Amino acid sequence: MEGLWPDDVLPEFGLRALDFETRCRDVAMRVLSCFADKLGFDSDFFTRAHDPQSMHYQSTLRMLHYFALPEDAEPDPNVWRAGAHTDFDCLTLLFQRDGQGGLQVCPGKEAEAQEWTPVVPSADAITCNMLMRWSDDRLPSNFHRVKSPGPGEDRGARYSIAFFAQADRDVVIEGPDGRYPPLTAEQYIQQRIAANFAG
Q1: Distance (Å, whole) CA 94 – CA 92
Q2: Distance CA 173, CA 186 (A)
Q3: Which of 3, 36, 37, 123 has the fewest CB atoms within 10 Å distance of its CB?
């Protein structure tokens, strides 16, 4: 990011963003340590797998902006601000603003029936999406999407921030029960990206 921060327009933006990313990582590691024991790992297992000092570190903080829709626009109900997907990372922390809805989840048995549940945005809550492969599917990553505003819904811009705790590229992902063959975090992400563009 050298030379890319908009500090001339937003003084100290880079420092604040990096500080927020560090705090997100700390929260993510505390959450993951709660699951480590139940999965048969030691409490610092995930902290070691997400080492910000490693040259293989790949966790990401992403600032998301969905543009406002004009009041006279008639959006196609089949067009989404973000289409249905599952995340590839170990843990996602999502921060939303009050009143800026649109996020929907389709967990578990609802996935087959395509029953989407809105996630009410709140500045006081962090929405989490959990690790799947490392838990041998005991903690599934839910399908989610961001729908376009419908009739009578707020058409303003939508802002959110996502922190994706992605294991370092060289870390081997292997669940406690061996349901899946071991592979590195880099291989796993490449596999998931390739699957998105298959066919």
Answers
A1: 6
A2: 10
A3: 3
Cα–Cα distance between 19 and 21 in angstroms, integer? Answer: 5
User: Rounded distance, CA 6 to CA 16, Å?
Assistant: 12
Contacts of residue 75, defined as CB under 8 A and 6 or more positions apart, other chains included, come to: 69, 148, 149, 150
3-state SS string over 89-115? CCEEEEEECCCCCCEEEECCCHHHHCC
CA distances from 25 to 30, 49, 54, 59, 74 (A): 9, 12, 14, 8, 40
Kindly report, residue by residue over 131-176, the tens digit of the pLDDT. 788 888 888 788 889 988 887 788 899 999 999 999 999 999 999 9
- Using the CB atoms, write b or e for 145-158: b if 16+ within 10 Å: bbbbbeeeeebeeb
How many residues are listed for the chain in this entry? Answer: 199
Single pTM value for the model: 0.89
Q: Is 88 exposed, middle or buried (0-12, 13-18, 19+ CB in 10 A)?
A: buried
CB atoms within 10 A of CB 96: 23
Beta strands in 33-109 (DSSP E): 60-66, 80-85, 91-96, 103-106
Task: Give 40: exposed, middle or buried? Use CB within 10 Å, 0-12, 13-18, 19+.
Answer: exposed
